[in-house]
Amino acid sequence: MGLGFLNHKYESVVVAYDDENTPVKLTGKKMLPIIVKNDGIAQNESLDILKDLDNKNQLSWDFYFTNKTEVDKLIELIGSPLHSLAMPYWIWTPEFDEKSRHYFQSKKEIKRGPFKNLVRDQKEYINELEKILDENLLNKLQPFFMNSKITIVDIMIASHLWGAYIVPEFQFNSKIHQYLMKVKELTHFNYHADFF
Length: 196
What we know:
The chain is mainly alpha-helical. It folds into two domains: 2-53, Glutaredoxin (3-Layer(aba) Sandwich), CATH 3.40.30; 61-188, Glutathione S-transferase Yfyf (Class Pi), Chain A, domain 2 (Up-down Bundle). Helices cover 55% and strands 3% of the residues. The protein has ten helices and two strands, in the order ααββαααααααα. The chain has helices at 2-5, 21-27, 46-53, 61-66, 68-90, 98-112, 115-120, 122-136, 152-161, 174-187; strands at residues 34-36, 42-44. A two-stranded antiparallel sheet has the order 1-2. The two termini are 17 Å apart.
């Protein structure tokens, strides 16, 4: 989303979830995404990558840093129920094969418990996520998060929320859906771009 908004040309390479060697070899730790620049230098941490590339401050970084505590809290609030809700679906997307699916599920179940229990408790996660969005996002869209123009904060929020579209039992409020579609349009985002 960030690279699309900045009109930064790039080639995307999907790394298997169980591939620890590639990220460690490039950056010294298993963390994605990674950008390898034309000079061969590799960097990870998505916010650091975008901040370095955004030399015209098109994403209004000052807005994020001014509201960092609130934004980080919102992202954390969203992440807990959303990940529990969506992970049992994510493992069946094209980026996973049988080996990486098992690796992902084993790692995530250490923190969240068995995926079968996440599926069983799905309604609880849906209710929790809806409440978080109603109380912390819906009334702050102006039409972007506390702003009349898109900022890095909207990309942070949208990149987290996009994962919920895979869950057929969950439906976004129409205003939030319209917000996400506007972010998608402005960032030229296509979830399936890596599979064309």
